[in-house]
Amino acid sequence: MSVWITRSAPDNLRTARELRALGQMPLMVPILTTVPRYQPPITSPPDGIVFTSVHAVRHFARHDQLASVPVFAASGPVAKAASLAGYVNVTSTGGDDAMLSDLMGHVLPREARVLLLCGDSTSPIAADRLLAQGCRVARQAIYKSVSIQDHALTPVTEALDRVSAIILHSRSGAERIVPLLRRAEWRGSLWCISEQAAHACSDLPHVTVHTAARPSEGSLLDMIAQASPAKQKRQSPVRELNAAILMSALQSHRSSQRLTARNDNAPDIWRPDDDDPDPTAA
């Protein structure tokens, strides 16, 4: 039996590799694609740039004067895409949005101007966190999600009896697929990256909906690993090491701030285990 990855390309390739490592049989048929939106001209460089997804990097019309502006990426793959695009100062916390906003509050100047580049359906929580850190945030949706036409999905919708599970990476993806599954009276498991995606599927009969503990690709894959027959545990040593290094650096920075001047942007309490909000994108 196959697992249908509905995620947009090229991110679906990474998910497929992880699933194969877990002994699953991935079927890559995107139900959404992304197209660029109008981007107003950049009049002056911001103090920092946030890319929420690989799509944001791919669709952003990069300006040469922004190449050296500090870039903060939502995950390791996004950071890699930004580096390949020519940005020379790229930082990521491996998918931990709370840690990323805390880091930006420490390293950027007070009331820093931050350009947050995202999709039209991206959650506003990342921007809200930066606002809480004292940043001045310009949230710019530079791409939008577009549904793949039904006829392009025929090869998989006509073979749903051989699909045991479907992975959903966004609420918009869930809303797109629900009518197809209802018409086919499909029975199986839906593995959702967030509560928002799961909620869109809540009224499907004969379907079991599973929701990742945290709305991130890593948490989603950990959930799938637990459901896999082999019960394999995913290993993410690079991500865990990066997170540990950043956490140590932030804690050291806070200790030094107590001995010198207080950072007005610093959080009152460091909570590394807080749940991430939904960063859903196509």
Supply Rg. Answer: 20 Å
- Uncertain runs with pLDDT below 50, 5 residues or more? 236-281
Shape: elongated
Number of strands: 11
Structural class: alpha/beta
Strand content: 15-25%
Mean pLDDT across the residues is 82
Q: Which tags fit this structure?
A:
282 residues; disordered C terminus; 6-stranded mixed β-sheet; alpha/beta; 11 strands; 10 helices
Concise description?
This protein is of the alpha/beta class and 282 residues long. The chain has helices spanning 11-21, 54-59, 76-84, 97-107, 125-132, 154-157, 171-184, 195-199, 217-227, 237-259, and strands at residues 2-5, 26-28, 32-36, 48-51, 71-73, 90-92, 113-119, 136-147, 163-168, 188-192, 207-211. The strands form 2 sheets. The chain has a 6-stranded mixed beta sheet with strand order 3-8-7-4-5-6.
In words, what does this structure look like?
The protein is an alpha/beta fold and 282 residues long. It contains ten helices and eleven strands. The protein has helices at 11-21, 54-59, 76-84, 97-107, 125-132, 154-157, 171-184, 195-199, 217-227, 237-259; strands at 2-5, 26-28, 32-36, 48-51, 71-73, 90-92, 113-119, 136-147, 163-168, 188-192, 207-211. The strands form two sheets. The protein has a six-stranded mixed beta sheet with strand order 3-8-7-4-5-6. A five-stranded parallel beta sheet has the order 2-1-9-10-11, sandwiched between helices. β9, α7 (171-184) and β10 (188-192) form a beta-alpha-beta unit. It is elongated. The two termini are 25 Å apart.
